[in-house]
Amino acid sequence: MGVKWNLPERMRSGAQMLMPPIPSESDSDIYTSVPESVESFNKVESLDYDPIENYPYRAFRQQVSRKPVEGIVIELRKWCVTLIAGLITGAFAYSLSRAANKLAQVKFDIVSDWVLEGRTWVSYVTFTAFCVGLVTISSILVAYVEPVAAGSGITETKAFLNGANVAHTIRIRTFVITTISTILSNAAGLFLGKEEPIVRLSSIIASGMSQGGSRTLRFGLKSFATLRNDHEKRDFFAIGAAAGVSAAFGAPIGGVLFSLEESSSFWNNDLTWRMFFCSVVSTFTLNFILSGVKGTFSTAGLISYKISNEAGYQLLDVVPFIFVAALGGVLGAAFNSLNNRVARARTKYLTSRHARVIEAILMSLITATAIFTLPMIFPCRSDPKTPATRVCPAVCFIGCQSFNNQIETVSFSCDSGHFNPAASMLFSTQDTALKNLFSRKTGDELTLPALLLHLCATFLLTAVTYGTSVAGGLFAPLILIGSSYGRLCARILQLIVPAYKHHICPGVYALIGTSSMLGGSLRMTISLTIILVELTNDITYLMPLMISVMVSKWVGDLFNRPLYNQHIDIMSLPFLEPSLKEF
Fold this sequence. Notes:
By secondary structure, the protein is mainly alpha-helical. The protein is 60% helix and 2% strand. The chain has 20 helices and six strands. It has a two-stranded antiparallel ribbon. Strands 3-4 form a two-stranded antiparallel ribbon.
């Protein structure tokens, strides 16, 4: 039984007077989460991380020690659950991503033809109605059926693995609502990602399977009785989190490091092996499905940008890399500050479910309007895929014969043979926009004004949207912001130093900008570096990535706390930090 934080009524008023104030975003020296009221403790119980020492437990241990075969069966059952959880996680992650991408592509396919025909108002109304309709369904399900499904789920995951038994975290209803809401919000075009919800869902899969039953469905297998305790539930929850990261990014090592660095507060060698095994299985399963069940693996994860070694970096590049990383840390801290203010205002003023749904609808309307109208500001450009317009950069990659433009252009309202640079980043799916921003075999297709507009729009809309009553994460939007920022810095450097123009590859700076934005906002270090290396399949930039992540984290820590830790405070979840800084 967990420990409940109950206080007598006569002690609560005194405890409230002694309770320290809530740390604001500027209190960078305070590193302990403090709930906003003592009553919030009464809603959360702690997990029993160690088995309770009692006579039945002693009898059970003696029975196991007398019968070695029974101990082997228990261990074998754990490994079987780990294997099945990895298989299901890989297949489920593929299905969720496929559904979201297909639904989003249908939206663009319907509207694109009408835009080319000049039916602008009909296209806008249809596009907006499609987006608003999906978000309305998504927000209603979250607000009225399962409010815990809102957001990315990483906040609840960190609190759960830290020892707080957050209500409704491991429920079938949470799983179903999170799945549906993630698909709908992602297809609607909100600047939210599906990677963190996949991590939450995979944790529910692994921990739920370890219990061998369900309270909602009212059944339980007797053979799993030995695993029905908080200790095993927490271990499998951490295993599922690592498997989710592995499937989302094709990064099994990064998944294990993520669970170790960002989530789990308790660790052991047995957990390490099972976690790595589950991560490998989930990645293999996803790769097998993405290969078309042909066995020829080419894509590592749901987000994967294979970058060839044709573009390297020189010692002179390290200086601008550090400068980009420092500014990225400031940008990440500014994002945290803005999102923190919006989240606190949302908690204070939007207290009813109706208000939360209306807020989500308004954000969908604003986002759809921005995506549709902002590209109209920019003139059309000649399609770089046309042979007459191909220009081979001198140093970014070797040989003109290897030149194959990687930009997936979007014509929007342009004539045949032309494209809209802003629409190629805004009026497309997140995966297409990211591929364009990370592309290295490109010239000046993505213009400087278009990149600046995309950066500002994505930054503001993501900061305001995250926390609304829909399921969605931050990883993909932060990658969008960081890649736009890095590519923008590269274009500015090309203008400032024309003699060095052909040595500056915007795709490389997009990678550095991504790592600095993630490091400045989420403050991840080791796991982030490995995830980005596995994501890009390019170890050439391991050292620049390490430098970028460290510099951006140091700069970000000067201003405020990591984003997920701020949301733990806002949600009033008990959370014990690794250390307490003096203040």
